[in-house]
Amino acid sequence: MAGKSTPMMEQYLALKREAGDCLLFYRMGDFFELFFEDARIAAGVLDIALTSRGEHDGDAVPMCGVPVHAAEGYLARLIKAGCRVAIADQVETPEEAKLRAKAEGRPSSKALVKRDIIRFVTAGTLTEEALLEPRRANLLVAISEVRGAIGIASCDISTGHMVLEDCPPDMLSAALARLGPSEIVVAEDWPSAGEDMILRPRGDFSSEAGAKSLQRLHEVSTLDGFGDFSRTMLSAAGGLIAYLDHVGRGTLPLLLPPRAIADRATLAMDEATRTSLEILESSNGGRTGSLVAAVDRCVTGAGARLLAEDLSAPLLDRQTIEDRLALVQFWLDRPIDRADLRDIMRGLPDLGRALGRIVAGRGSPRDLGQVRDGLFDAQRICDSMAAHGDRPDLLDALLPALTGHGALIDHLQRALVESPPTERSNGGYIADGFDASLDELREVSGNARRAIAAMEARYRDETGIASLKIKHNGVLGYFIEVPSRHADALMDPESGFAHRQTMKGAVRFNSVALHEEATRIAEAGGHALAAEEAHFLELTAAIEAVQRTIAATASALARLDVATGHAERAAEGDWCKPEIDEGDGLAIMGGRHPVVEAALASTGERFVANDCQLAPDNRLWLIGGPNMGGKSTFLRQNALIVLIAQAGGFVPASSARIGLVDRLFSRVGASDNLARGRSTFMVEMVETAAILSQATDRSFVILDEVGRGTSTYDGLALAWAVVEAVHSTIACRCLFATHYHELARLAESCEALSLHHVRAREWQGDLVLLHELADGPADRSYGLAVAKLAGVPPAVVARAQQVLQKLEAAREETGGLAAGLGELPLFAAATPAAEPEPEDDLAAKLQDTDLDALSPREALDLLYAWQRELKSTNP
Ligand code: ADP
Ligand code: MG
Fold first, then answer.
1. Beta carbons within 10 angstroms of residue 777's beta carbon
2. Phi/psi of residue 415, each to 5°?
3. In a 10 Å sphere around its CB, with 0-12 CB exposed, 13-18 middle and 19+ buried, how is residue 179 labelled?
4. Residue 442 three-state SS
5. Which residues pair with 32 in a beta bridge?
6. What is the pTM assigned to this prediction?
7. Whose CA is nearest to atom 6 of ligand 1?
C-alpha cells in the first residue's frame, strides 16, 4: 500500500467504491484488513489496535485487521454495533495470479491476486450460528408504496420464512413495531426514510419484477397457489429479493413461498403499547422481565422464536386460536408423554437454520449432520404421536410434515460420520463404507503412513541413530531428522539420504523411499478430499431439492414445542385455558401478572389474584387507590392475559372468558416514561390521540394515569375528556387507573362506567397495601402514608399532613378541583375552579394549625413561611 497508486491500492479503492458505506474487509493472507476511515471505525468498535501502513497521498494509511479464522466473532460485534460489512476475498491463488500475469505479459513477481466482494454481511441477512441469537427471529423487511397503499415484505433468511402484507399507511409504524426488523430496505425516494433504512434503486421495487422473481424462485407460472398477493405486496417482495441478490452477490438465500397475510388479520398493537406491555423486551432492554421470558418454556430455539412471533401477533380468528388451545390442553392432560416429547426435542438441532445456511451456500458438513438428525428425530416424534388416539386437529395437521424424509435420512446416515466437522476443507466427514473408492484412497494413505512408521524403525536400525525421527510439517512435508552430532554419517552422498535443512541442533534429510510414500499420501489425500467435496455437493443438492418440505418439518416441530411449552407453563403456574367468544365481554377471574408474580415469588412473596369483569353495560372501570397499590399491575395483567389467550396460550388466571379483541392499546402517564426524547407530555398526548382515532368498539384499552404529565388542572381536564370519549364515542372495554378522585364524578354521567379501587389499610399508624381490588371509589388518598412508607422524614410528613388538611377543608367548601364538572355537557371544556385569595388562604391555614402539636422551632418556621407567602403575593 506504499506510494501514490500501487496496483493494490487501486484494487482496494475500486472495491471500496463498490462497498459503498459498508466497511470493507480486504483479504490479505490470513487477515482481513481495514483501511482509512473503516479502520478507525472498526478499531473503535472492536477495541483492537489501529496501526498504519505505507502512505497514500502523502499521509500514512490507518489500518487494522482481524484474523480470518476468527472473523465471525468480530463480524458479530460490528453488526451488533450497527455496521455493515463487505467481504473482499481472494478469488484466485497466487499461482493463478502469476500465470495470469505471465499470459498478459507482465512480470509474474508482481502479480496481484484478484479480489472480489463475495458477500455483504448485514444485520438482516445473517445465517451464521455464531451471529444469530437462537431464541430470536432475525427479520429483513422491505417496504414499498404504490399509489398511497403500502406493502411490507418480511423475511427471516436464516429459516427462509417470508411474509407479504398490505398495510394502511397509518398502521405502518405499528406493523414495524410488531415485526421488529433488524434491517429495513426502502426505495431511494421513500419520503420518510429513517437514518438506518437502506435505500435501494426505485426500479428494484416494481411489482412485475417482484412477481417474476417469485415465480422464477419457486418455479411456478403463477403465484395463485401461494395466496392472494396485491401489487404493493409484490412490489415490496421485488425490493426485498433484489436486495438479497445484491448482498449475496447473486446467491440467493433460502426463500420459502411467501405467505400473504390479510390486512387486520392480527391483534393490532402500536409501538407505545408494545413497549409499555414489555412483550419481547422489558423496559431495561433485555429479555429478562419481559412477557415472552415469563411465558417461554420452549426447549428449542425455533420454538422460542415462534412463541415470540405468536405473542407479537396474536390472532383474531377464533377457530385458529381454539385449535392452538386444544393442542395445549392435549399436552397438559398427558404429562408423561409431554416430558418424553420434550426430552427428544431438547436434543434437536436448529433444523430450519441449518437448512438456511445450506441453501445460502454457507453450509458446513455439520449442517448436513443437523439436517440428518433433525429429520430423524422428527420421524421418531411422528411415530410416537401417531400412537395417540383422539388427537386434536392441529396435531393431525402437523403429523404429515414430520415424516416422509426416510430416503434422505437414510442417505445422510450412510454418507456422514457421526459428528461431522464445521470445517469442510479438511475432509473427514464422509463415513467409511459409503464410497468404495474413497475407502481405497484412505487405505492407500493409511498404508503409506504405516509404511513411513516402519521406515523410521528401519532407518534407526540401519544408521544406528536411535534418536532418528521421521516428522511432518506444512512447509517441508515429510522429512528425516537427526541431532547435529549424528548428521555427518547421513551427509555422505553414498548414504542414500539427501540434505534438506540445517537447524540449530538438528539436520533434516530426505530419502527416495520417503519421498515416494509421501507422494502417495499427498496424492491419495488430494483425491480423497476431492471425492468428499463431490459428495458434499451431492448431499447439499439432495437437501436443497426438498428444502420446502424440510422447512415445513422445522415449522411443525416449532409449533409442537410452543404447544408443549404452553402446557408446561400452565402446569407449573396453574394457568387455565381461556374461553374465546365473539362477544364483547371480558371476564378474568383470579387473574395474575406473570412477570410480577414471578418476581414476587423469587423473594417469597405472594401475588394477590384479582378479578376483572367487563360487559357492555359495565365496560369502563375507573380504578383509584394509593400509589404502589397495584393499579398498574392490574391493568397490565388483564391486557397480557388477552394477548396470551389470542396468541393461543393458557393464561395466568383461574378462569378467563374473552370476547375477541381487535386492537389493544396501553398508555402510561408521561412521568413514568421519562426515557423518551420528546416532551413527555407531548408524547402522551400524541399517543392518546391515536387511541381516540384508531380504537373500535371491539378494542381493549388500558390507560394508566394518563394526564399526569402536566399541571393538575390540565391533566384532570384531559383525563376527564379522554374517559368520556372512550366511554361514549368509542364505547370499548377500558381500564383506567387514576389518582384524580375527581374523576369519580364521571360515574354520574357515564352509565357504563364503574368505580373501583385497590385496597389499603392503616394499621397501627402504618399503611398496609393489600393489592386487592374492591368496588367503589377510593375512600381517601394515602399519599402521605405512602410517603412515610417510602422513608420521607417524619417532620416533612407531619408538615404535609397540615397542608393536606387545609386543602381538604377548602375542597369541602368549594366542591374541590372538579367543582361544577358534574353539570358539564359532554365534551365541554372544563372551567377551572377559582384560585383562593391569599389572605383567606393564610387565615384558613392559621385556623387549621394545631398550635399544641408544634415544637417552638416548627412554629417559628411556619411564621417565616407565612410571612414569605404574604410578601410574595402583596409586595
Ligand atoms: P400502582 O400502579 O398502584 O402505583 P403498581 O401496580 O405499580 O402500583 O404496583 C406496585 C408494586 O406492588 C408492584 O411492583 C408489586 O411489587 C406490588 N403488587 C402490585 N400488584 C400486586 C398484587 N396483585 N399482589 C402482590 N403484589 C402486588
Ligand atoms: Mg402505577
1. 18
2. -80, -35
3. buried
4. helix
5. 27, 66
6. 0.83
7. 630
- 32-41 LR contacts (CB < 8 Å, sep 24+): 32/65, 32/66, 32/68, 32/71, 32/87, 33/63, 33/64, 33/65, 34/63, 34/64, 34/65, 35/1, 35/61, 35/62, 35/63, 36/61, 36/62, 37/62, 39/63, 39/64, 41/83
List, for residues 159-213, the tens digit of each pLDDT value. 999 999 998 888 888 899 899 999 999 999 998 878 889 999 999 999 999 999 9
pLDDT number for residue 356: 95
Amino acid in position 291: L
Q: Which residues, 6+ apart, have CB-to-CB distance to 698 below 8 Å?
A: 584, 659, 660, 661, 662, 663, 732
CB of 680 closer than 6 A to ligand 1? no
583, pLDDT greater than 50: yes
Q: Do β-strands 59-67 and 31-35 pair in parallel, antiparallel, or remain unpaired?
A: antiparallel
d(CA 228, CA 261): 9
Q: Which helix (H) or strand (E) covers residue 515, if one does? A: helix 512-545
Cα dihedral sign for 672, 678, 681, 683?
A: negative
Contact yes or no for 151/217 (Cβ under 8 A): no
Q: What's the 759 CA to ligand 2 centre distance in angstroms?
A: 14
Average of pLDDT values for 782-810? 77
CB neighbour list of residue 562: distance below 8 Å, 6 or more residues apart:
298, 303, 306, 307, 310
Task: Indicate the DSSP class of residue 186.
Answer: E
Q: Strands of 183-187's sheet, edge to edge?
A: 197-200, 183-187, 140-146, 149-156, 161-167, 259-261
- Sole residue written with cell 383461574: 654
* Residues 466-524: tens digit of each pLDDT: 999 999 988 888 999 999 999 888 888 888 899 999 999 999 999 999 999 999 888 99
With left for phi above 0 and alpha for psi between -120 and 50, is residue 289 left, alpha or beta?
left
- DSSP element (H, E) containing 276: helix 271-277
Query: Residue 760 has what pLDDT?
Result: 86
Asked if the model's pLDDT at residue 805 lies above 90, the reply is no
- Residue 772 CA: nearest ligand 1 atom is 23
For ligand 1, whether the C-beta of 627 sits within 6 Å is yes
> What distance lies between CA 44 and its chain's CA centroid?
25
Nearest listed ligand to the Cα of residue 603? 1
Contact 498, 479 (CB under 8 A): no
pLDDT tens for residues 130-160? 888 899 999 999 999 988 889 999 999 999 9
Q: Which residues contact 442 (CB under 8 A, 6 or more apart)?
A: 432, 524, 528
Whether 570 contacts 295, CB under 8 Å: no
So what's the pLDDT on residue 711? 64
DSSP, collapsed to helix, strand or coil, labels residue 766 as strand
Written in H, E and C, the secondary structure of 377-390 is: HHHHHHHHHHCCCC
Residue 637 beta carbon below 6 angstroms from any ligand 1 atom: no
